[in-house]
């Protein structure tokens, strides 16, 4: 059974990915930063449904803590699937954005990607099979007012995706990014009402976390072995 680490696995999209991968006979490592109880609840729910899962909590921004966590996880079995889904919002126009809010967002999305992924690469390379999926955003593709920090972090993550895909292609490891648009969940509820969604999204609705999870599951499969270095939008025809 392959093992997958899903950072931000206790969130709306992250948990949907955990459930979907578990349905595909993949062991899901459900990560959270501070909310270990929620991650454990998701892992327990997956096991109750016949899947395999475990929970873990650590701060992806803390390089030393993350490296130690990767060592412990790797000691119990090879991790061949990484879903870099952890991310935060600290929205504000740049003119009024604090340095802390700028740095925090980039630390989670971009530095977190490095801290989690880099220690796991050599074992994955030696196994000659792997899947890395970086969760970007429509904001990283198109930009968005009030999200210079988030857009910058996600755009940088897309550049890293393309470069890493080239570095790992000969080892049968694919690296792709998924760029969701407006997706149902807590972040959407705090930012968009129904009419605003209809005005922005040509399909006139928000996407579902399960739809993003379905795309992630496909990219993790052997059927997606020739897809790498791509930024795949899932946004209801927004772009």
Question: Would you summarize the structure shown here?
Answer:
The protein is of the alpha/beta class.
What can you see in these coordinates?
With 239 residues, the protein is an alpha/beta fold. Helices cover 49% and strands 16% of the residues. A seven-stranded parallel sheet has the order 3-2-1-4-5-6-7, sandwiched between helices. Strand 1, helix 1 (12-23) and strand 2 (27-32) form a beta-alpha-beta unit.
Low-confidence stretches: none
The helicity comes to: 40-55%
**Any idea what the shape is?**
globular
If classified by CATH, what would the architecture be?
A: 3-Layer(aba) Sandwich
Biggest sheet strand order reads 3-2-1-4-5-6-7
Q: How far is it from the N-terminal to the C-terminal residue, by CA?
A: 37 Å
**Individual helix count:** 9
Instruction: Report the CATH C-level class.
Output: Alpha Beta
Helix/strand structural class: alpha/beta
Counting structural domains, the number is 1
CATH superfamily membership: NAD(P)-binding Rossmann-like Domain
**N-to-C series of helices and strands:** EHEHEHEHEHHEHHHE
Task: Tell me the CATH topology.
Answer: Rossmann fold
| Average pLDDT for all residues | 97
Strand content: 15-25%
């Amino acid at each position: 059974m392959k093992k997958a680490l899903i950072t931000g696995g206790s969130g709306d999209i992250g948990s949907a990915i955990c459930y979907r991968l578990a349905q595909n006979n993949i062991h899901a490592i459900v990560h959270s930063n501070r909310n270990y109880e929620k991650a454990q609840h998701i892992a327990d729910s997956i096991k109750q449904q016949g899947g395999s899962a475990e929970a873990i909590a650590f701060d992806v921004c803390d390089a030393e803590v993350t490296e130690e966590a990767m060592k412990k996880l790797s000691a119990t079995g090879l991790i061949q699937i990484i879903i870099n889904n952890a991310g935060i919002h600290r929205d504000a126009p740049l003119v009024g954005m604090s340095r802390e809010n700028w740095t925090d967002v980039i630390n989670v999305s971009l530095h977190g990607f490095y801290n989690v992924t880099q220690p796991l690469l050599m074992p994955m390379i030696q196994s000659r099979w792997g899947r890395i999926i970086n969760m970007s955003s429509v904001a990283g593709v198109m930009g968005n007012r009030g999200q210079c920090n988030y857009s910058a972090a996600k755009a940088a993550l897309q550049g890293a995706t393309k470069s890493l895909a080239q570095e790992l292609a000969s080892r049968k490891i694919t690296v792709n990014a998924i760029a969701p648009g407006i997706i149902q969940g807590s972040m959407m509820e705090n930012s968009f009402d129904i009419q605003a969604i209809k005005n922005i999204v040509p399909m006139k609705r928000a996407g579902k976390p399960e739809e993003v999870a379905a795309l992630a599951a496909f990219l993790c499969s052997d059927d997606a072995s020739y897809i790498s270095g791509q930024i795949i939008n899932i946004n209801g025809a927004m772009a």
